[in-house]
């Protein structure tokens, strides 16, 4: 038997619901960095600046920082053993204290983003190494690299305050057309309806930059060497508490939230009844 036809008003209502649902879904999906013009938006000038798909217009966030380190401690451009571990530790001796890099060498760029979120990161020169959207070496969820290596997008599978990108610096010849500087820019949003936030920095070539371990075999920290708290390059006041401060907070909470109310209860209700106890 044929099903009874729906009234015209009901059909229109259902059609409207479907259109709204599909539109909302598409707009939400397009807000992900990986779907933001991966062909033409490759450098700092191409980052979003106005409202787009639920996100408010972009503003500079000074809490977003950048830190350069060596990825290959011998100063080579060779791939390393555990670069596909996004929680790998970066030895302090491998950090570069200045805004510099060595041309042609393999570096680790750490983007510090306290208000975590998916990110779009671009470099005016050099090439990001591919480790997937979640920076774990797997590309089955999508590729992170775009624009011939000058851009990297991250997804929600890895959202931490410290995100480490492997970047191979350009050669001196590639930099001859500039002042030797490379501009890195990041745009991020903490949620699907939060405003865009951005920041950028310039790092400069230094051919005399000393490698951390001269003559050493190329190797990242031993397998299993991790920054389990994801606190690398991060101030304690933002990303963690010192043990004594944490202990102080625990005992203050215990005293005021537990012991004081118990004392007040006994003071009020624990007195002996009149005539009891002589």
Textual characterization of the structure:
The chain is 21% helix and 20% strand. It is built from four helices and eleven strands, in the order αβββββββββαββαα. Strands 1, 3, 5, 7, 8, 10 and 11 form a seven-stranded mixed sheet that branches. A four-stranded antiparallel sheet has the order 2-4-9-6, with no helix packed on it. It is elongated. The model is unreliable at 13-30 and 233-246 (pLDDT under 50).
Structural class comes to: alpha+beta
Number of strands: 11
Mean pLDDT: 76
Helices, by number, come to 4
Q: What's the N-to-C terminus distance?
A: 92 Å
Provide the gyration radius in Å. 27 Å
> Which shape, going by the Cα principal axes?
elongated
**Portion in helices:** 10-25%
Main beta-sheet strand count, sense and barrel state: 7 strands, mixed
Which stretches are low in confidence, meaning pLDDT under 50 for 5 or more residues running? 13-30, 233-246
Order of helices and strands: HEEEEEEEEEHEEHH
Please indicate the percent range of residues in DSSP E strands (runs of 2 or more): 15-25%
Task: Provide a quick synopsis of the model.
The chain is an alpha+beta fold and 278 residues long.
List keywords for this structure.
20% strand; elongated
Lay out the secondary structure:
Blueprint lengths: L7 H23 L28 E2 L4 E6 L29 E2 L4 E7 L5 E6 L3 E2 L16 E2 L4 E3 L8 E7 L3 H4 L5 E9 L7 E9 L30 H4 L3 H27 L9
Parallel strand pairs: 1-11, 3-11
Antiparallel strand pairs: 2-4, 4-9, 5-8, 5-10, 6-9, 7-8, 10-11
């Amino acid at each position: 038997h044929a099903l009874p036809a729906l009234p015209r008003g009901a059909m229109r209502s259902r059609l409207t619901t479907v259109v709204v649902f599909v539109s909302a879904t598409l707009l939400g999906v397009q807000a992900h960095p990986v779907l933001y013009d991966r062909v033409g938006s490759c450098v700092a000038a191409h980052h979003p600046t106005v409202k787009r798909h639920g996100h408010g217009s972009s503003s500079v966030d000074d809490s977003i920082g950048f830190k350069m380190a060596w990825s290959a401690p011998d100063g080579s451009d060779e791939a390393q053993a555990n670069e596909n571990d996004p929680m790998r530790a970066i030895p302090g001796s491998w950090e570069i204290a200045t805004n510099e890099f060595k041309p042609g060498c393999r570096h680790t760029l750490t983007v510090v983003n306290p208000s975590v979120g998916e990110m779009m990161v671009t470099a005016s020169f050099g090439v990001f190494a591919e480790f997937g959207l979640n920076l774990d070496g797997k590309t089955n969820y999508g590729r992170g690299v775009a624009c011939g290596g000058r851009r990297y997008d991250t997804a929600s599978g890895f959202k931490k305050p410290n995100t480490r990108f492997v970047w191979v610096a350009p050669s001196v010849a590639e930099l001859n057309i500039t002042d030797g500087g490379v501009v890195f820019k990041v745009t991020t949003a903490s949620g699907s309806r939060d405003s865009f936030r951005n920041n950028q920095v310039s790092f400069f070539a230094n051919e005399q930059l000393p490698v951390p371990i001269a003559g050493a075999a190329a190797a990242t920290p031993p397998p299993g060497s991790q920054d389990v708290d994801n606190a690398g390059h991060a101030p304690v006041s933002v990303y963690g508490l010192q043990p004594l401060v944490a202990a102080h907070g625990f005992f203050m909470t215990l005293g005021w939230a537990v012991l004081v109310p118990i004392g007040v209860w006994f003071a009020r209700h624990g007195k002996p009844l009149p005539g009891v106890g002589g």
